[in-house]
Amino acid sequence: MDLVNLQKSDGIATLILNRGKVNAINGDMVDQLKGHLQSLEVDREVKAIILTGSGKFFSFGFDIPEFLSFSREQFKDYLLNFTGLYTTLFRYPKPVVAALNGHTIAGGCMLALACDQRVMVTGKARIALNEIGFGASLLAGATEMLRFAVGNYNATQVLYSGALYSAEDALGLGLVHQVASEVDLMDMARQSAVEMGSKDLPAFTSIKNLLRGAIVEEMKRREDRSIDEFIDIWYSETTWANLQDIRIY
Fold it and tell me: Could you tell me the pTM of the whole model?
């Protein structure tokens, strides 16, 4: 089953998350995203990528009900795979634009933060790293990507509050770069993708590495330890009880 749909048009590839109503992220979706990114990296016709979701959600984040049946070892394998995905996306050699078509929550927000540009739809959609609200911690890589996007002060506000931000509030924080109506979202995302994709690719990749390389090194240095801590808190009595009450469908 295709959990990530691929479309190509005039040098722009669009990857569409397509898993149920809320595009909850599981291992199969991670694997399919990784596979598409690997193929598109060597596709000379593709100059830039747009990442978006189907329906009214970009992504709710992790498929928590599915993970409730996982052992600690299985969940760690998933987290290693997921953090590998957002690290790949964060250092991807081609431009990637996130078109946030709806709610962009937790793990969905992490994927969006890994992109070069984020365009978010106005209205009811919210973006958040709200893990603290249900007693979960965060991952080192996600924290570093957030700091890169919004700075230390705003990152602290985002993570300590667990608040859900509108597109306009997210723009003010630096969580997103542009806001758009539902009608204009994909056109604006495509315009950004075309503009970045028109740059000389070796130059773009080099500059991206200069901007992000040290952050990637820090992400890798701290990630394994943060995963272990994330798992310890996830399986703690209080957090585990909170997770049982989360419904995503």
Answer: 0.97
